[in-house]
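W.,

You were right to be curious about this one. When I first looked at the sequence I had no strong expectations either way, so I just let the prediction run and decided to look at it fresh. Below is the sequence, 73 residues in total, followed by the output.
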Amino acid sequence: MTDERQQLHLLGQAIRSARETGDFTVEGLACAAGISSGQLQALEAGELNPDYELLLRLAACLSTPPLRIHHPS
């Protein structure tokens, strides 16, 4: 796995974890963030490289700082 691919995978895991902790469905978070559920699923699977604006929207919906999503612990 390449470094970029691994980073996208970790980002996807962090977003999925934050979504589940916040008790959001894929559909609910996608709608709140203004994207399709398919896009969110691709993001969580590490198949989509989101732009910064999308990360900010997701963080706002999840009530978490963007860096917490971007750099999972």
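Here's what jumped out at me. Residues 3-21 form the longest helix (19 residues). And, maybe more interesting for your project: The chain has five helices and no strands.

Coffee later to discuss?

I.
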